[in-house]
């Protein structure tokens, strides 16, 4: 594989000051879906020094085989559409003259859906009044937790119970959240992080962001029936012209979950590029509707271990 044909497509979610590591946003840091602003700026500076950043539009030429760049490049993408992209990431990018792709879950951006299911899960976990208790009905076995133990707190954020929740239908998710609230003795309503609405998306496009779709409700498309998945894909794409936003043919698969059927349905719905996850660089051998992306972490060695090989022969 010719290394000039590789792309590091980076996938960010939230970008927050390090001071937010504790408190309501802690689970996002634990899950690596929040990157420290300081780490984000450091990463941008390292990439700027190497003149590595390519505009998101370059993906079209690259996947179609045209416009071969003589060097490897990095493309910045954001998933979900949290308000901190506008508050923290956008100014850092603007300062450096960099542009990025933002893929939004359209029912969340339109306000039809209040955030993401995981937002409600994390907010409930962070509001726990109980220290010990039982969580039952999520997996085959009830789980007795003690939140004085770090491993039990970590399990609540991403253990089998939460993973079962993510894969459940919206109706079952509501029931699971109710059970979580009872087990953790959370009585008051919880608040979730602010998300970008249509007017903020307009602002971001003016600042140079390119928009993409990230599903209608963030449902995992391979788990839906063919009719449901096709509907999600079509409605997610139709959101943009319906709100006078630039049309898009880029889809970021929710949670990176995809399959050949999902990719065929996406193509039929008019998408030409599909972004997944894969912890490796994208090559021209990857199907355009399933390009792997890397999630940068707060680990200071991440850049050297995972991204630097893009620029060296060893990453071939
Ligand atoms: Zn997502």
Can you walk through the features of this model?
The protein is an alpha/beta fold and 316 residues long. The protein starts with 6 loop residues before the first strand and ends in a 9-residue tail after the last helix. The chain has helices spanning 26-30, 37-49, 58-64, 84-95, 106-109, 117-126, 150-158, 160-167, 170-184, 198-206, 226-242, 260-268, 302-307; strands at residues 7-12, 14-16, 34-36, 73-80, 101-104, 132-135, 143-146, 210-213, 250-252, 273-275. It is globular. The protein contains 13 helices and ten strands. The model has no long low-confidence stretch (mean pLDDT 94). The strands form four sheets. A four-stranded parallel β-sheet has the order 1-4-5-8. Strands 2-3 form a two-stranded parallel sheet. It has a two-stranded antiparallel ribbon with strand order 6-7. The protein folds into two domains: 3-113 and 194-315, TIM Barrel (Alpha-Beta Barrel); 117-184, no CATH class. Helix 2 runs parallel beside helix 4 (84-95), helix 6 packs parallel to helix 9 and helix 11 (226-242) crosses helix 12 (260-268). Zinc ion binds at residues 79-80, 214, 218, 254.
